[in-house]
Amino acid sequence: MAVSKWLPRWFFQLASPRWCYEITGKLLPGFLIAAVFLLGVGIVWALGFAPPDYQQGNSFRIMYLHVPSAILAQSCYMLMAIAGAIGLIWKMKVADMVAYCTAPIGASMAVIALATGAIWGKPTWGSWWVWDARLTSMLILLFLYFGVMALYAAMESEASAAKAAAVLSLVGLVNIPIIKYSVEWWNTLHQPATFTLTEKPAMPAEMWMPLLVMVIGFYCFFSVSLMLRLRNEILRRERRAGWVKDLIVPK
Amino acid sequence: MADSRTKTSDNSLGKQFAAVFKRDLLLSFRRKSDLANPLIFFLMVATLFPLGVSPEPNFLAEVAPGVVWVAALLATLLSLDGLFRSDFDDGTLEQVMLSPQPLMVVCLAKVAAHWVTTGLPLTLMSPLLGLMLFLPSDAMLGLMASLLIGTPTLSLIGAIGAGLTVGLKKGGVLISLLVLPLYIPVLIFGSGAVQAASIGLPVVGYLALLGAMLALGFVLAPFAISAAVRISVSG
């Protein structure tokens, strides 16, 4: 195998559900502590100490939830599609499970991003919803998540559901840039500047530092959430394996 | 020797494409109601808008590009479920997968036949809807051109959804859920072209973008379609 020379050993070890279960068990506490610490520090810093915006006052502080969840929603889609591709190419069961577990997390992140965007839009733009390019493409991303999740739910066999969802998420991955640009062009064509999104001034460090902490905190939270789901899923799908039986009912 | 071999394989690919294309066309022309239903649906959706919103000509002319395009999109969606269904049910797809030629060619031929029986008639019928919705006559050419270039992309993308759901009992609603978000770019530029045409702006840019999407879909979608069909048949 020529490919095996290029990939590190741990990549192939991840293919073993048991090894994956054990390694995530070891990693989980570290990520949990990091997530709690970073999110705690980030929220206190963002809500209590970051300076208010010179135009939007304190209402901009919802950005500290909005931006990380929007970033996460996009990263989750990437992860889901890449895991799906790995599952299709190398037939790794664990990759299929990762894709399956990522979809609902990504969809919730998209919902959080849309909800916080709407709440932020009310004081800033004066309406809950604006057909802004970014809001619209986030909504479409949410629809793509719904499609993938519906496909998982509709197919009875886990193996073919994983393959079908992987194909669909890869098609979506090709489409995301096209959708993003078409929505942006559509937006500039249809909407004369009734709502000028205040051009983002280069944020001062006191403002973006807590944002960075929040983004990293969100990533850690996502890892914790993914690992918890993944460990459950591994146990559920491998329930007939000897090591799972030994784990649940110790001899 | 090598030359003659490639030549025969080329021939058989072309032959296979032509055979599947002809067979699918023949099948759809023998079931004329299946052929007419999407068109009637197309007409009905366009009728609902004046009834539901407003019969005011100025208003209708303004929304006509969007309404015609959305109606065309939904009509295509409606016809997608049947694309692989009967071949899946009677085992033809399994036999096709056993044949030495790539599944992609067969899928592409089926998509082409699907377009000839839905996208093309929708395009030809669109001026009628344009008239009903008071679309300016200058925009008719833009409407037909945008549908002519845009509907093949709809068939190509839709076939991916049809392939993924063909193994399921109730694929109909699921197809819409899978495929509609992917249709959005085509809708944006398709209706954009008609809108530009109706106010006298050049449409070439929109048509070029629709053409680019068609080229991309033509190159990439067959892989996804054949992968989807393979999953459904073997799953």
Automatic annotation (TrEMBL), chain A:
Ranges of residues in domain Cytochrome c assembly protein: 30-190
Keyword annotations: Cell inner membrane, Cell membrane, Cytochrome c-type biogenesis, Membrane, Transmembrane, Transmembrane helix, Transport
Recorded superkingdom: Bacteria
Location in or out of the cell: Cell inner membrane; Membrane
TM segment ranges: 27-50, 70-90, 97-121, 133-154, 161-179, 207-230
Listed GO biological process terms: cytochrome complex assembly
Keyword Membrane: yes
Topology relative to the membrane: Multi-pass membrane protein
GO cellular component: plasma membrane
GO molecular function: heme binding; heme transmembrane transporter activity
Keyword 4Fe-4S belongs to the record: no
Pfam families xref list: Cytochrom_C_asm (PF01578)
InterPro entries per the UniProt record, alphabetical: Cyt_c_assembly, Cyt_c_biogenesis_CcmC, Cyt_c_biogenesis_CcsA/CcmC
Protein role: Required for the export of heme to the periplasm for the biogenesis of c-type cytochromes.
Family: Belongs to the CcmC/CycZ/HelC family.
Protein name: Heme exporter protein C
